[in-house]
Amino acid sequence: MNVSRPAVHPVEAPPLTEAAVHGPRMRMKDLQGMPGTKGGLFLRLSQFILAIISVSVMATTNDFRTATAFCYLVLAVGLQSLWSLSLAFLDIYAILVKRSLRNYIVIRLFTIGDGTLVCHCTIFRG
């Protein structure tokens, strides 16, 4: 059996890495407005309230039914308000059970949903 022994072939210690010199890497702290935080809940609720106010103002105008694009804009803002309300409920749940929503899949879902609805609202406005 050809096995080297430490007495014959001493093993050197591996070189120090940056983590050993500077300490272990830490995750970022919770940012204000991040999903699952009180700041994120405040932003989602304010987004929902402002969307409801804008839909109410648009729907109460006299010529609402005559402008087709205006009807589509109200539909897009209505979808935005439902999206904001559902994410606000998710934030409330995460705060109550003290769970972080720092999962990359969840963050990607938020990003795609927000981006899609913002694009639709922008297209219908212009």
Produce the secondary structure layout:
Blueprint: H1 18-22, H2 38-59, H3 68-96, H4 104-125
Give structural notes:
The protein has 126 residues and is an all-alpha fold. Helix 2 runs antiparallel to helix 3 (68-96) and helix 3 (68-96) packs antiparallel against helix 4 (104-125). The chain is built from 4 helices and no strands. The chain has helices at residues 18-22, 38-59, 68-96, 104-125. Helices cover 62% and strands 0% of the residues. The model has no long low-confidence stretch (mean pLDDT 76). It starts with 17 loop residues before the first helix and ends with a helix.
Mean pLDDT: 76
Radius of gyration: 26 Å
- Overall number of strands: 0
Which class best fits the helix and strand makeup? Answer: mainly alpha
Distance between the termini: 79 Å
Q: Residue ranges: pLDDT <50 for 5 or more in a row?
A: none
User: Percentage of helical residues?
Assistant: 55-70%
How much strand content do the residues show? under 5%
Oligomer: single chain
The largest pleated sheet is described as: none
Q: How large is the count of helical segments? A: 4
Order of helices and strands: HHHH
| General shape | elongated
